[in-house]
Amino acid sequence: MSEELDSKRTPKGEQTRQRILQCALGLFSSRGYEETTMREIAAEAGYSPGLTYKYFASKEELVLELYQTLCKDLDAFSRGLPSGPLAERFHLNVATGLEMMAPYREALSALFRTALNPRSRVGVFSKETADIRLHARETYLRVVRGAKDAPKESQSEDLATILYGVHLAMVLFWLIDESPQTWRAGLLLAFLRDMLKLLQPILWLPPVAQALSKLAAILGPLLGDERKTALSQKPDQDDKPM
């Protein structure tokens, strides 16, 4: 078993792994995710099914590999973000994330329905992607903490959760945007940046901060916020659904 793992870590093994992944993404784009089989991926890559399964046991593992790569790349970028206003750091982080996804936009679009299914292994909110969401939220916590106008720690935690949720919504809009060069997505992102600038002075007022904390508590379990939230306790009478 150790020899098999070592073979995947060699330069040649990594080259093979990347070729299989790129061929799979190409087939997802041209044929659709559900319609593509592992045998077709192996044939497209020029490898035997046995060798292909040695690197990826299923189509789901290929998709999870893409998710993990994109998450790691954005995390690395966020560590080098210049210090500045939170709104600008948020805008730059989301814009860069979309640029990183651009080469895979067709493949991600082909995954659209499956990715929104929480029961699918490759669902954005599935158990299998929980660690990815955890690390992605930590990226936004770094974005908030590194800003010149960062709030206090508890509010930074809440804002990181909310901004990560906005990031996911932005990705969704970007995927369905059919405008030339997705310029509508660019306009929306600029609008969100400007709204954050406009609203930031009041975000820390007690009533607003409490509302943000409640929103973060609602979204947190889905978005990798592992803090103990109010939702883990019995809801107040006023919070019960009608």
UniProtKB/TrEMBL annotation:
Location of the HTH tetR-type domain? 14-74
Keyword Transcription among UniProt keywords:
yes
Under InterPro entries, the record lists: Homeodomain-like_sf, HTH-type_TetR-like_transc_reg, HTH_TetR, Tet_transcr_reg_TetR-rel_C_sf
Residue ranges the UniProt entry marks as DNA-binding: 37-56
Question: What SUPFAM superfamilies does the annotation carry?
Answer: Homeodomain-like, Tetracyclin repressor-like, C-terminal domain
Keyword Kinase appears in the UniProt entry: no
Q: Which GO terms describe its molecular function?
A: DNA-binding transcription factor activity; transcription cis-regulatory region binding
Cross-referenced Pfam families: TetR_N
**UniProt entry keywords in alphabetical sequence:** DNA-binding, Transcription, Transcription regulation
Q: What's this protein's name?
A: TetR family transcriptional regulator
